[in-house]
Amino acid sequence: MEKRDLELVQKYISSDPELKRHMDEHEEFERRLAELNRHLYLTPEEEVERKKIQKLKLAGRDRIEAILAKYRSQDARG
């Protein structure tokens, strides 16, 4: 995440429960993926889980980007 985005997150996370929820989920997905990626080999179940988490993480990231875009336009206006 870019510095500007991180600054927006810090600015609005305490007042935007949706942003906080998506950021918390994103961090949890990253933690779980890092855990899976430490394995030399994944079981078929772990591989399915890894792909599912990657998709959820990407969808959450898209939602975070949409929220941040809203705040960027608000900041630009005023």
Work out the number of β strands.
0
Written as H for each helix and E for each strand, in order along the chain, the element string is: HHH
Strand percentage lies at under 5%
Number of helices: 3
Low-confidence stretches: none
Number of domains: 1
Shape: elongated
Distance between the termini: 24 Å
Give the integer mean of the pLDDT values. 94
What share of the residues lie within helices?
A: over 70%
Radius of gyration: 15 Å
Largest sheet: none
Q: What would you note in describing this structure?
A:
It is a single chain. The chain is mainly alpha-helical. It has one domain. 83% of the residues lie in helices and 0% in strands. The protein starts with a helix and ends with a helix.
Task: Briefly characterize the structure.
With 78 residues, this protein is mainly alpha-helical. It has helices at residues 3-12, 17-37, 44-77.
